[in-house]
Model the fold of this input.
Amino acid sequence: MARTPAIRSSDASSSGFRGAARLALLACVAGGLAACAGSTPEPEEVPAAEVLYQRGLTQMEGGKTLWVIPTSDNEKAIETFQQIIDNYPYSEHAVLAELKIADAYFADEKYDEALSYYRDFSELHPQHERVPYTLHQAARCHYAQSRSADRDQTATEEALKYLDQLITRYPHSAEAREAEDTWKELRTKLAQHDMHIADYYMDREEYQSAADRYRGVLNKYPGLGLDADALYKLGVCYTEMNLEDEAHKIFEVILRNYRGTDVAAAAADRMPEPDESSDQIPSAN
Done:
């Protein structure tokens, strides 16, 4: 008769221990899942608008590492100011945050982005006291992209449009006074650009086209230091077009108003010699 092997007490106790361990593990997992299911993370509290605004200013201003290397972080500042706009859209800090985003882009030389914010600010808040500032800054965005006088002048013209608005609408503002020298500089560049084009036509003996450009400089940009040169070259064009009387009138204007200059000396060389016979005393009969 076969015998059933006896179960040793050590095997039984080991098996019971393993079973208990499994039950304990399952209980822990189940408890953990229940705890997770029963608790939701609390939303992070958004700081007050003023706190965020001051934080953004600090990020823009930054500091200096070893008093030499700037540590400002305009990208983080933009994010902080955007938080104000998103969470406190009707506050005064939201309005100021729009302006500071523009300033942050300008500081990073991202002029197209800055221009968009400056332009939007003046359009959305036309009565705000900072509108003169936004017009000036918009002009500066274009000014930073203005090219030399012999190249395309689209950016120069756009800058002048904003400066004209600023000076016309806010003539007594600090920004208008500050913009006067820039306005003159940009108009001079446009005049020089037209002079380059006129010279181009003159070099190719297209005197009518050149004359039209020189007259345009005199009419549109007087008093910017180019009058004498434009007058003289206009006189030369008239001479080449056989319009002697008109040419001589121009050279006389130069001799009267720019005496002692190189342009006056050149104009004198183009004047006809005086008729000496008219100065002689007629002989008596």
